[in-house]
Amino acid sequence: MKISKYISCIALCTLILGLASCEPKGLTEKDVFAPTDNASLDAILKAENPDGQYKIYNFNSLLNAPFMSETGNFKSDSCLYRTRSKYGSYELFSIDTLPVNGPGIYIRGRIATDDYGGNFYKSLVIQQVNDWENGGAAIEQQCLRISVDMGSANGMYPQGQEILIRCNGLAIGRYANQPQLCIPTYNNNIFAGSYTEKTGWAPGRIPAAEFRNATRLIGTPDKSKLVYETLTLADMQTKYTSKYNDIVGARKVDGRLVKITDVHFSGEYNDLKKGITPCNHYKADTTDNGNPELDENACTFGPTTGNVGHPQSRYVKDASNTHKALVSSSEYARYAYFYLPAAKYVGSITGILGYYMDNGNFAPDETKWSVTPCNIGDILPECQKQDANPRWIPTEWKAGTPQPEE
């Protein structure tokens, strides 16, 4: 009996020690992130391309032949893009498929967007600062949009994370003249307004599994390495806005990271029929005016569009009220129903420069340019830090409560 007890005791102690030794160890950076040194990247590239045939391309190279053409390779008599996608000889929507086989086609960039705020739903913008094709010398920033069918993409691909993407088998296309890495998608948009004009092929979202399979993380996220071009509205007018009729040139600057300084919100938006129009203020009365859940003209960042889903834009101006630009927000953004800051609040807007033109029936104009922030923190942040300026406190609309300041 004693021997049996001793054996049982020894077995129990061994089991306890065994269970203790099975506790998982804490993860390190090496366990989660790919290495940053070039030797390790070369090893990854060579493993994926045993024949040694691959190249890391600049983003702008993807926007030129042989990768991107004006009409794309999906257009035919029986296979059309959206009906209203053509402006003169230019295609605002296009798709060019990239070869599945052959030499590896790669791009490399740092994620510039954060989808937490809701303005970049199932989409990324990546920034390239180095010239990968010519030895890594610094060049003017290049940025590219990526459509990915992945909710909360920021969890896996956070802002500041550098990535390497194998593009073989994907497509490069234009959606509303905005170039993006994508896949071909056909949609009849039967529930959209003017759906007869929106039927056809257009760039679509890359399936999440396919994107993960094509993408390698490089190092750890570092938002400090993102490069923003600091501009006044006058600078923006000279460099970008005044060139709104350059359909092809706009494609290569779409998606750039900018910081527009010394601006205030004018409380206006652009109505397609009325032009520049004052927003409606909520007066705590019984009407719908100013209620962003009901009134698309409400004085908030992104009032309802009736689920049509187009971006809502609000004007910012400089001190002279001479120059202006649009700040674009989705009605599904977390801050969509926050009141616009009163004109006395002055600060900067940090975001992604966009040139959105989805209807060839209208000539280009300056309202096609806008800046889209990621989160509420990208809007007038200096006002919350400098005592010399009045402090803007973001306030969300609430039924029965008037706007704090008008």
Unreliable runs: none
Radius of gyration: 25 Å
Summarize the helix and strand pattern as letters: HHHEHEEEEEEEEEEEHEEHHEEEEEEE
Number of helices: 7
Shape: globular
Question: Percent of residues in helical segments?
Answer: 10-25%
Mean pLDDT: 85
Distance N terminus to C terminus?
89 Å
Oligomer: single chain
Main β-sheet description: 11 strands, mixed
Content of β-strand: 25-35%
* Structure class: alpha+beta
Number of strands: 21
Structure description:
With 406 residues, this protein is α+β, with helices and mostly antiparallel strands. The protein has helices at 2-21, 29-32, 38-48, 59-62, 208-214, 233-239, 247-253; strands at 54-56, 86-87, 90-91, 94-97, 104-111, 123-130, 138-149, 162-166, 171-175, 178-187, 200-204, 206-207, 215-218, 229-231, 257-265, 268-271, 275-278, 312-317, 324-329, 347-355, 369-372. The strands form four sheets. Strands 1, 4, 5, 6, 7, 8, 9, 10, 11, 12 and 13 form an eleven-stranded mixed sheet that branches. Strands 14, 15, 18, 19, 20 and 21 form a six-stranded mixed sheet that branches. A two-stranded antiparallel ribbon has the order 2-3.
In short:
The chain has 406 residues and is of the alpha+beta class. The chain is built from 7 helices and 21 strands.
SSE order and pairing:
Layout lengths: L1 H20 L7 H4 L5 H11 L5 E3 L2 H4 L23 E2 L2 E2 L2 E4 L6 E8 L11 E8 L7 E12 L12 E5 L4 E5 L2 E10 L12 E5 L1 E2 H7 E4 L10 E3 L1 H7 L7 H7 L3 E9 L2 E4 L3 E4 L33 E6 L6 E6 L17 E9 L13 E4 L34
Parallel strand pairs: 1-5, 7-10, 7-12, 14-15
Antiparallel strand pairs: 2-3, 4-9, 5-6, 5-8, 6-7, 8-13, 9-10, 10-11, 15-18, 15-20, 16-17, 18-19, 20-21
